[in-house]
Amino acid sequence: MGRRRRRVDEEASARAGAGARTLLDAIATLSRSLPTGPCPEIFRRAKFDRPEAAPALWELLFRLLAPLLADRAAASLGPGAQARWVKAVLCSHGYPRPALAQLPEDGSQGSRELLLAFSWLLARGPLLEWLLAQTCVKLGDQVPTFECEVLASPGLATPQMDAEGPVDLRCLQWLMGKLRFQWQQLICSQEEQCALLSKIHMYTWGCHSDRNLGHLSVTETEMLRDPEGSQQLLQALEQENAQLEAALEWRRYELVFWQWMDTVLGACPSEDPAVPTFQPSISEHGRGKLELVAQELQALKEELQALQELLRKEVLSRRQAWETQIGGLGHGPEWSAARQALQQAVDRELLALRQAWKQGKGPSLPQGPHRLVKIEAGSAEAQGLPVAEVIRALRSQEASLEAVLCRLQGQCRQELARLAGTVPGLIWILPPGR
Amino acid sequence: MAVLLQADCARRLVAELQGALDACAERQRQVEQSLRVSRRLLQAWEPAGTTALEPPPGSETKKDPSPACTPNPQDIKELELLTQALEKAIRVRKGISKTGERGRTPSLKPGSTALSPGTTASASPQSSSRTGHCSSRTRPTKGILQTKVPAKHHPEHRLPLAGNRSPVGIGAQATRLEPNHREQMTLSAAPHAAETFTLKEKGTLLQLPMAFRKVASRNSCLWTRLNSTQTSDATDATSAAKTQFLQKMQRSSSISSSRFSAVEVEMEAQCLQKACALLRLRMQEELSAAPEDWMQEYRCLLTLEGLQAMAGQCLHKVQELCTALTEQLPGPCLMGRPLKASLPCGDRVCTSWGPQLLLYSSTQELQTLATLRLRVAMLEQQVHLEKVLMAELLPMVSTQEPQGQPWLALCRAAYSLLCEGGERFLTILQEDPAD
């Protein structure tokens, strides 16, 4: 222990000796591994809270928080909206410094605060790795994903909507119908795409230089068909390699950066606790999802209370019945051993139950990038996740979501029936098929 | 009958639905884009594409940088003669020894490159018969493994070429014959317009360009390193420094560190929903069981007691979350579905970052997977929309005066949207009070 500490100290002092050079290297490496690759000078200026560094850092944070969205939506969102979005996301992830929310959204100041926010993200988890995985060049064919929050524009509750004034409920019904139709269409297109993918995989069987992959992907085949496009792909891949190299190198320099960040944090004037934390710079628009969560929690609370009450009664009566019937019989050592064994078995069972909700069941789809590989049925050589396993996990996910939807619809049915029950002379004829 | 929604309520609901529609449309656009690409690949490749199917760029001679683009009749004639000669050579060669040949493959490679790009053989009888037996799936795999060998031994031989050639050169090594023929001839479909390239017939002849293979393999190496050094390289000192930084940041803040963030509240709430459903299910199982002996009876009792305790713990957690929600900072609020897994957090560390392989064996399996995935996404969206609609419509129904046509129309519309997903309607008969 002591030795390790000494070693660490030695390392630290050695690095301190190397001085500013190492810090510059660290920041340069970090900057090279980031998607927007802000100029290293930005970081230094941010330490001194120089206003000119702020726009680049807002942009960086936006890119980090919405990696897949950036290209398309960044253009459509102005810097102000981007800044608002960054604030909202950081806040919902529990960012501890209220000073961030007070920053003006025009990017005119606050570079130090932004540097702190960036470092906070970086310190919390493997940000660079995650980011690289999100933005990596997709050479392989993927299972079509559907991530609303990625695809749709960032969901900030905004006041500007085309629907001004009252709207007929039939408009909602029409939109719902349209949505259902779009889903059907999507499923059909997707099926066709899968069939084509499978064909391409079969026809290029054995063409890949990587033995594990075997066949080509659409991107790779397309690259052979259209060499012009392949140049771009190659460049993108080379760029990714450079980022990966930088990310690997960063791990060696990281410590210096954190020591430096410590001084940045030290340079911040401490907050005055007397000042009321802050004035929200943006008026709140409508109800956000927190309100929905609050409602859900309320419903959950009631449900759990009912459940608990039911269990309490049941346990009470059974315990009494047990005591009167059999309780008197066994106080011997055999019984106490049996009882202990039973208790342990039950504990184990309930622990498993608890784990079932703590972690999802079975393997879900890989969160990051993945590549579809066609294998011959029954071949055991290939390394990877069998689709059959993912299908199983998705089926159970499907079932539980169906149950949730069903429960919610049931709640609505009850509630509406209750409301309608107050009106005499109404006959409800439910639609067929239920 | 028109049922008007108030402006703010309408705005929220329309925004939610529009968001869902936009997401769907965006996805549809993406699928159609990939459908276009895939369909084009499965059709006959156009000449512009087939010009890429040049011989392997081992040719130091570089006589003609773009031979396949400008075939003239004279060349074609010569080519045919040469093709015949080569075919003959192959027949003779085949007769000799195959085993010796394999060993010599690397050294023979330069020989093949001595052929000028123009002297490629068109799709010959050999190649088509070969395509025939390549459709058995194991052979080409072996074949490609063999072709890899020379490439590895002579990387320096081909790399510069890939680098300094025009973009066409990238696709240059596209098509190649299998190893026993490879060193003599390469296939180019270009000179013969009749010999169009289709993936179905000649897909197995494709080969990735060397430059690409090199960059791609470097890429996968780097991903492997990124995964493997993740834990070992992150020294104690670094992680200590990070923790210290986070703590110091927290201390400098006026916000208590113990509170849940909005994202955490959402995730915990989801988890508790699941817990509640599981507890209920387990309880029902226990209550409906008929114990056969006193042991089972006692066990049942213990289980119910355990469930009761767990329900209590869940309730406590719900209370905590409710408190945390009220402590949320005011500010811009996010709309839409939960931001699940949108950022890496300490406790949800992914073990592997690089591209993972997903193995499937049949088209049907792939289709099932894709459809299920969409179905799950759709259900998630439906559940979210259901909650949003419930929050808006139920209060509307309950606060309006429960009489008259407008109220009935509202009830009917609300019933359809809330209970039937908008798919079916209910019929309401009103008895005439006079009857």
From TrEMBL, chain A:
Keywords: Coiled coil. This is Tubulin epsilon and delta complex 1. Pfam families: TEDC1. Residues 287-317 form a coiled coil. The gene is TEDC1. GO terms for cellular component: centriole; cilium. The keyword Coiled coil applies. Residues 94-265 form the Tubulin epsilon and delta complex protein domain. It comes from the Eukaryota. One of its GO terms (biological process) is positive regulation of smoothened signaling pathway. The keyword Ribonucleoprotein does not apply. InterPro entries: TEDC1, TEDC1_dom. It comes from Chinchilla lanigera.
TrEMBL record, chain B:
Residues 46-74, 93-168 are annotated as: Disordered. One of its GO terms (cellular component) is cilium. GO terms for biological process: positive regulation of smoothened signaling pathway. InterPro entries: DUF4693. Residues 113-138 have a biased composition (Polar residues). It comes from the Eukaryota. It holds the Pfam family DUF4693. This is Tubulin epsilon and delta complex 2.
